[in-house]
Please model this.
Amino acid sequence: MEPRCAEQDLAQEPPHRRSSLELVYNLFAVCLLGSPNTHAGLCVLDPGKQTFHVMRMIAVALVVKAALTIVTFSIKVPAGIFIPTLGVGACAGRIVGLVVQYARWRWPTAPVFTSCLEDSPCVIPGLYAMVGAAAALSGVTRTTVSLAVIMFELTDTLTYAIPVMLAVLVAKTVADALEPKGIYDLVIELSQLPYLNAKHQYLWGGLTVSDAMDRDVEAIHFGHSNTVCTLRDQLAKVAAAGYGYRVPYPAQQRGWEVTHAWFYRW
Model:
């Protein structure tokens, strides 16, 4: 009896206490009439009695998963951003799907649902969850084509290619309007990593390398009459400016050792 009780308790765990991968799987699932698998209680077989209860559970999971993802990613815990973002977007999409499902059950003769057959599952909340997950991940990471391919591989079908691609494009457009940089670009910038972004346009104007350099610099000319005092003054002036010094031609030809230690030996 104990293993059965443990299995029953595990099946009754709320969505926010499950792992992100398991949550995404249950949110993407299609609920079938007569199936014993309720997918962690997320299946709504009676919209009149179960819709709002399931929506509350998913809303709690959305808030909890979003908060935990923000905390773990900001403190640099290796918890990832990919699957948690999919879970948050899937929760939001599943809620929208349940709202549409309830509207179809409440107003079956509405013009929006005229093309739905009476006994067919016209509204599939799992599809809304998949579209919401793709849109959330596109808005966070700013990926487009690769994300659409990943979603096709997850679902193993091209049936819903158009809604997924539209959701990805709309999400990226809205995200770019709010913040041009994605989450990874922002992390690189906040961490002050030496990264040269190829997408960024560095405006140098009409400046060239010669404009950033100076020809009139302090130099030690061995062709001139130099004394210890004049060399010391020149090196002190250069050291005060924070620059090195330049020898026009190899000092070894004259047997000079132009270093600070040379002066100390004198």
